[in-house]
Amino acid sequence: MLEKLFSSKKHPEPNDAEVAQVNAALDRYDRIFRGSRGYGFLDFDVLRGKAHWRGGFWSHLGYDDTEIYKGKEIEGISDAEHFLNYVHVDDRETFTNKLTSLIKTQECEDLIFRVVKKDGSYLWVELRLDAVCNDDGRVSHLSGVVFDVSALKETEQALKISEARHARIIEASNDGIWEWSAEYGGKYMEHTNDGGWTWSNQEGSFTFSSRCWEMIGYSMDDDVVREGIVAWRRLMHKDDGKRFDKVLSDHIFKRVPFDIEYRIRGKDGEWHWILGRGQMSHDKHGRPKILSGTNMDITALKRAEERVMRAKEEAEKANHAKSEFLSSMSHELRTPLNAILGFAQLFDLDTNLTLEQRDNIKEIKSAGKHLLELVGDVLDLAKIEAGHLQLSYDRVLPSRVVDECAALLKSQIEEHELSLEISLNGLENQAILADQMRLKQIFLNLLSNAIKYNRQSGKIKIECTIVSNMLKIVIEDSGMGIPSHLQAELFQPFNRLGAERSNIEGSGVGLVITKQLVEQMGGKIGVKSQEKVGTEFWVQFPLAECAGEQEVTFDKIDTTFIDEECIPELLVQETKKILYVEDNPSNQKLMKQVLARYPVFDLTVVGLAVQGLYVARSDVPDLIILDVNLPGIDGFEIVEILKQDENTRDVPVIALSANVLSHDIQKGKAVGFDYYLTKPLNLAELITVCNQLLT
Questions:
Q1: Is 548 part of a structural domain of the chain?
Q2: Cα–chain center distance at 615
Q3: Are residues 148 and 10 in the same domain?
Q4: How far apart are CA 455 and CA 145, in angstroms?
Q5: Cα separation, 298 vs 267, whole angstroms
Q6: CA 210 vs CA 162, 168, 215: distances in Å
Q7: Please, which pLDDT band fits residue 563 given cuts at 50, 70 and 90?
Q8: Which of 136, 142, 160, 617 is the most exposed place for a label (fewest CB within 10 A)?
Q9: Considering the domain boundaries, does residue 192 fall inside one?
Q10: Residues in a beta bridge with 277
């Protein structure tokens, strides 16, 4: 193959002197190249078709001179064709073509190819040849140096693999890439006096991938693409452009991260959202050099966020409307219930009623209270679902709350002929952090269920223990139990597990509310039940630290532990002037008839807020009972005015309102109400409060 490249003419053999001279030169080359392991000398005698191989490179391949020169190692000469035996078969054609080109063009040529080692493996070498011509202008010799470039080729191959991998990743990510060179034409982009920087209009200083333009609808053939960064900056939303400049400037000169979302006008005329991220490299002097980064199209994500935000706003509006509706519904229902239950309570003070009439009144009161409980449960459930239930935490003694609930339900326990056992196990003074009113609601729900679903003459046991730094209260009944296949449905709203077909009253939301209240106060709730044996509900609450023997008192505005079935005796002995401000005629009539039973009360009833203020200032009363929802000026404003007046600031004021939301009660406490009573009127509460304020 190589022989065809070289002349076939016979030339005279060199004389001994010429050979000696050549060998002397080769020896010098041998000494030089053998001293540098991995380098070799190669000389092709084109006219004679011979090759001279010298240097340590060949021993680096594992060969000795005998193998290389076929017995002519002394002369260091072999046939040129023999060299091809050491070239990888896949590279021989390229190698031969390169030599042909070199002979024709007489220009320097660098060849990279693979050669076989003694062990049969291959390594990459580079051969740098130069053409030497004779007097006839023909190439007589191709001479050069050969050396191992395997490490370089391996690095190059690894780089290609890495580049291919990165290309695949970038293509898969569908992101655009860009690079900005701050150095152009030998000059650096300098920091301006105002702390910013300027865009370069020089072509080539900013490079975009085609994907950058494609994501906003442009192709590489569009004229705008040829403008590069200038057009990109022009297409930015004006509100985002200055912010983009500031973020980029801060990244370049203050080294803060470059990470920004901005809008850019697409070819379709729509705004597209881009997430731009980049990293600037600096030279050894700290000057900006190259900024490389990516663009991600986040338009779909932004539009999804906008939809979510709109949905959230609409949901909040719906929740607000729902809360307003429930508040209004609660108020509207409690107003007629105030008359129903209020007038029914008046009959409890009448000694002339027959037994049948008393039973009828009892049914009216029972139905009214059940309706009131339903209204309260639905309102509580709605507040919990909307996340609007507000809890007021304090250090509370659960033992006291349990005793209060037991006393409150005493008549029901006696009616069902149940026995009640309370085992506090020495934990009477163990406090927890809880909302005292809601804690009472929890125990009332659980204890009421233990009464309602118990058997006649059954048992109820309440026990307190400490479990893993938590106070555990167990309420156990001896009822019929809950079937195991229904226990998973216990805490579903409005699911009474078939009890709706019985004569046991209930709304089906009590346990749902109880569970939510327990968990919101950081507690746990569970149940264990066996059919025909009974049911055990338990709750656990974290212990309050350092409780000791400290007395835990309830806020004076709370009247939830008053037994409404037991109207206390009025302790007021002297005549007291009471002012009642209420615009509802039915409620006015009820209060007149209630307090008419107590001769020591001198009652004045007015229907307008302004009139109430006038009466309070001109004839200062001993007690003011005030409705909150009044036309013109509401009850909160009236209290604030009264508390600012020297004549009335010390007069106790009671709120009597159908507004039962927690924020209304807290607001009433904040503006200065001494007590906040809710409608329907509880006569026992009213008399109890009067005893506290007027004696």
A1: no
A2: 57
A3: yes
A4: 108
A5: 17
A6: 21, 15, 9
A7: very low
A8: 136
A9: yes
A10: 259, 294
Q: Which of 154, 185, 215 is the last residue of a domain?
A: 154
The 3-state DSSP class for residue 290 equals strand
- Which amino acid type is present at position 170? I
Q: How confident is the model at residue 342 (pLDDT cuts 50, 70, 90)?
A: confident
DSSP state of 654: E
Residue that finishes a domain, picked among 257, 276, 297: 297
Task: Spell out the residues 6+ positions from residue 26 whose beta carbon is closer than 8 angstroms to its own.
Answer: 52, 54, 76
The one-letter amino acid at 530: Q
DSSP code at position 74: T
Domain limits at 141? Answer: 3-154
Percent over 70 (pLDDT), the chain: 78
Going by the DSSP 8-state scheme, the letter that residue 450 receives in this structure is H
* Dihedrals phi, psi of 300, to nearest 5 degrees: -60, -40
The structure tokens 């084109």 sit at 46
Q: Tell me what percent of the residues of the chain surpass a pLDDT of 90.
A: 17
Helix axes 510-520, 355-385, angle to 10 degrees: 50
* Per-residue pLDDT, 388: 61
Nearest to 211 by CA among 90, 295, 92, 292: 295
254 shares its domain with 150: no
Does residue 443 register a pLDDT over 80? yes
HSE-CB of 141 using CA atoms within 13 angstroms: 9
Helix, strand, coil shares, percent, the chain, to 5: 45, 25, 35
Lowest-confidence pick of 105-109, 297-301, 476-480, 687-691: 105-109
Q: Which residues pair with 581 in a beta bridge?
A: 606, 626
Q: Are 38 and 112 found together in one domain?
A: yes
Residues 197 and 258 sit within 8 Å (Cβ to Cβ): no
**CA-to-CA distance for 355 and 224, rounded, in angstroms?**
97
What is the distance between the alpha carbons of residues 654 and 637, in angstroms, rounded to a whole number?
14
Q: Is 22 left (phi over 0), alpha (psi -120 to 50) or beta?
A: alpha
Specify whether the CB–CB gap between 185 and 177 falls below 8 A. Answer: no
Pairing outcome for strands 39-45 and 139-148? antiparallel
- Cβ atoms 289, 283 nearer than 8 A: yes
How far, in Å, are 263, 313, 319, 323, 558 from residue 308 at the CA level? 19, 8, 16, 22, 41
Say whether both 53 and 190 belong to one domain: no
Compute the distance between CA of residue 200 and CA of residue 197 in angstroms, rounded to an integer. 10
Tell whether 102 and 244 lie within a shared domain: no
The CATH number of the domain holding residue 651 is 3.40.50.2300
DSSP label of 347: G
Q: Are residues 484 and 538 in the same domain?
A: yes
What lies within 8 Å, CB to CB, of 134 at 6+ separation is 47, 140
626 has which bridge partners?
581, 655
Q: How far apart are CA 296 and CA 173, in angstroms?
A: 9
Q: What does the pLDDT read at residue 12? A: 59
Alpha carbon distances (Å) from 460 to 405, 452, 637: 13, 11, 48
Name beta bridge partners: 111. Answer: 127
Domain count, the chain: 4
Say how far apart CA 553 and CA 182 lie, in whole Å: 72
DSSP states of 479-515 as a string?
A: S----GGGGGGTTSTT--TTGGGSS----S-HHHHHH
If we measure between CA atoms, which residue out of 249, 252, 248, 250 comes closest to residue 262? 248
Same domain, 130 and 258: no
One domain for residues 606 and 491: no
pLDDT digits (tens, 9 = 90+) for 639-689: 999 999 988 999 999 998 877 666 777 788 888 899 998 888 888 888 889
Q: Is residue 378 part of a domain?
A: no
Question: What whole-number distance in Å separates Cα of residue 43 and Cα of residue 46?
Answer: 9
